[in-house]
Design a protein that fits this description.
Shape: globular
Structural class: alpha/beta
Oligomer: single chain
Distance between the termini: 17 Å
Number of strands: 10
CATH class: Alpha Beta
Radius of gyration: 19 Å
Number of domains: 1
CATH architecture: Alpha-Beta Horseshoe
Strand order of the largest sheet: 2-3-6-7-8-9-10
Largest sheet: 7 strands, mixed
Length: about 300
């Protein structure tokens, strides 16, 4: 995205303690994200810091320049539990090519291993196949890279995720990681009511994920915190106006869809997932072919 302002900032901690999630710690090298996903829940964090929920999140990115120094000190204390990288910003957004904070964090984890997951829409992750393979060896397989692919429809991608690499490029990156023996899965998340929650749309994601070699398929419905509800509703009113009444009704009582909707979605996706050959663990590792660096980063 053009006209992104990057600010170098100092932070007080690198690891964030997490409760009630499948991981115990989170790590986010940046605040803000030029991927500009209209539905991004992390926009709420910006609002809580008196920052703009829209363009301010997309075009004003804080770079945590002391992250690695802090992370080294915190890892020396041997925190217990699992780590998730990229819970509130994409760790492989374009600025990673300059600052390499995500890669440097992974290199630190080689010294202080802990079970690690990465969530990204960024294809730059293929640059780090070497360190990811080494970390996976240190962790005895307790590493997984999750690619967020809510839809493989080009029109929906352009409208809902205008600053991201196309979904088919993310899936190509996933295939490269799988060929390197790295566990890589797809998150069909968030599922957008009325936009990506029909059987055909969900099946296309599952099929594409399977063909790319994904080890698993996960999902979750759209969550709309109060801080981002108006922003997202404006997006719906502009791009999918016929859905405005449905969204107003679905999210009238809170940030979550109803239990009935969640139950139906779970049943639908479980049925769809069963059609394809997802493996929860990767096959035995193979040697990594020596591909030219520019090819790996050109996807």
């Amino acid at each position: 995205m053009k006209d992104v302002i990057y600010r170098e900032v100092l932070v007080k901690s690198a690891l964030n303690r997490v409760r009630g999630m499948p991981f115990d710690w989170s790590l986010n090298p940046w605040s803000g994200c030029p991927h500009a996903c209209r539905y991004c829940f992390a926009r709420a964090y910006h609002v809580r810091k008196d920052r703009d929920v829209g363009a301010g999140f997309d075009r004003e990115v804080d770079v945590k320049v002391n992250l690695i120094e802090l992370l080294r000190a915190e890892l020396r204390k041997r925190p217990q539990g699992a780590l998730a990288i990229g819970t509130a910003t994409d760790p492989y957004q374009p600025i990673e090519g300059k600052y390499r904070l995500t890669r440097r964090a992974l290199e630190l984890l080689l010294e202080y291993p802990m079970p690690t997951s990465i969530v990204t829409k960024g294809t730059l992750v293929v640059r780090d196949i070497d360190v990811l393979r080494e970390l996976d060896d240190r962790l005895d397989g307790e590493l997984c890279v999750y690619f967020s692919v809510p839809s493989v429809d080009a029109d929906i991608w352009r409208k809902a995720e205008p600053g991201t690499p196309p979904p088919w490029q993310r899936l190509r990156a996933l295939t490269m990681l799988r060929h390197a023996g790295i566990d890589a899965a797809v998150l069909c998340a968030p599922v957008l009511p009325g936009i990506t929650d029909d059987d055909a749309s969900l099946d296309r994601v599952a099929r594409a994920a399977s063909e790319a070699g994904a080890t698993a398929l996960g999902w979750r419905p759209l969550k709309l915190d109060d801080e981002i509800k108006d922003y997202y509703f404006d997006f719906i009113a502009t791009e999918f106006p016929v859905l405005s009444p449905r969204y107003a009704a679905m999210y009238a009582s809170g940030p979550h869809t109803s239990r009935d909707y969640q139950r139906d979605l779970d049943r639908t996706l479980a049925r769809i997932r069963s059609r394809y050959g997802f493996r929860e663990r990767r096959p035995p590792k193979r040697p990594v072919p020596q591909a030219p660096q520019q090819l790996a980063l050109a996807i």
